[in-house]
Every structure is written in structure tokens, then in C-alpha cells.
């Protein structure tokens, strides 16, 4: 499927919210939508449309894949059971086929986001990576077969998120992501996250003018964006921070963005 020319495209300047560690030394935290220390700044965002083959998971921690068939329809996304029955096997095949060395997958969950619909999650408007390195190890200990646990921990494992729109070309709040080869580990830090009494953690990044921001304009239902969150085999280029953003050229009557991301542990 080709871009529809309905959504915004081309390089653009956009505002991003960075979570910073508080000056008093306390941990960075997000409670619901409240961030205890943030930095808002304008960044240049490059449109990778037409350049998809220039980027890969190993160097940039993201990969753009076109022309992906699916048996899921719009009604699928309203059913947890149908998502797992229909879409999870498709994602597993996609990961095995496109992640070098991958031989097995354990799913961590998924999120359906519908902009403006209060019954669903909303696009996240601060720069983040979904998981921490420690979370990857904890997930393996929790989910892996005990008979192969030590082997799983010893060999390469990655957390990868597979992102796609579910209601056609993205016209508003596209997803921007950082090329991992422009990211320094020193700028990463953990964030404590709480919502509705549930506590977890994720990784944030302090603002750095050297970060190279990208987005894939007018993403279609048959396109998939792979975003790496952790990689046990690499000390650099191992994750792609990302965030939704307001595109200055989005149409006034742009349809709300609806999307799904599926997160998985990928072994091999």
C-alpha cells in the first residue's frame, strides 16, 4: 500500500517532553500523567518515508517493514482474545523472519491506543523506552520454562515492540523515535511509574541536541515499525526512545490516531 497523501509528511520541527532526574537526587517519576521533572524542547524530526532500507535494528534499534499482510480486521482490536489468537502469531512470524538470529518469542503484552477515546489508552507524549534492562531479566525469570531459564539468561535476548496503525494512514500524533547510534548511555535513566495503584518502571532519556529524531510519515495498516527496547548483546545501539508528537502540518480535520503495539521477548 502506498501513502495516501492524507497525513502530514516531510521533515518537521516539533516539541518533545523529556523526563529529567530531579536536581535533589530523588528518582524521576511519573504518577498517572504527572511528571515530577521535565524539560520541553524543540527538535528536528526526519521523515524516513522512501528511505526505509537505510535503517536496521542492529545499528539504529528500529526497522521499518512494508507490505505486511494480516488477517486482523478493525473489530479484532476490540477483543483481547482475538488479538492474541489472530495477531500474536502474525507478530511472532514477523519477528522470526526479520530479527537476525531470532528463534523463539515470548509475548509480554500489547496496548491498543485510540486518541481521544477515554475507554482506551492514549498516545504517550513524553520520551521513553518501554522497559529497562532489569525488566528484561525479570520477565525471563517469570515467563521462561524453568528447564531452559539459565540458557535464556545466558544467551542473547531482546525486548522488541511491534507498532502499527489500525485505522488507516496516520494523520495526527505520529510516532517519533531516536536513532540509537546517536544515543549515549549516560543520558539514560530509570523512571518510577505509577497508575491506578500499579507500580512499574521504564527508561527515559535526558535531552541531548545530538539525538537524531525520525518518524515514518503516513504509516499504513500494512506497515510495521520494530522498536528495540533492550538488547543483552549490545552496550550501545540497544534501544530506541520514542514519543508521540504534534505535527505542525496535520490537517485540521485529521482523524484521531489509533494504533497497537505488541511487546515481546525475542531470543537468539
UniProtKB/TrEMBL annotation:
One of its GO terms (molecular function) is oxidoreductase activity. It comes from the Eukaryota. Belongs to the asaB hydroxylase/desaturase family. NCBIfam families: CmcJ_NvfI_EfuI. This is Methyltransferase. It comes from Venturia inaequalis (Apple scab fungus).
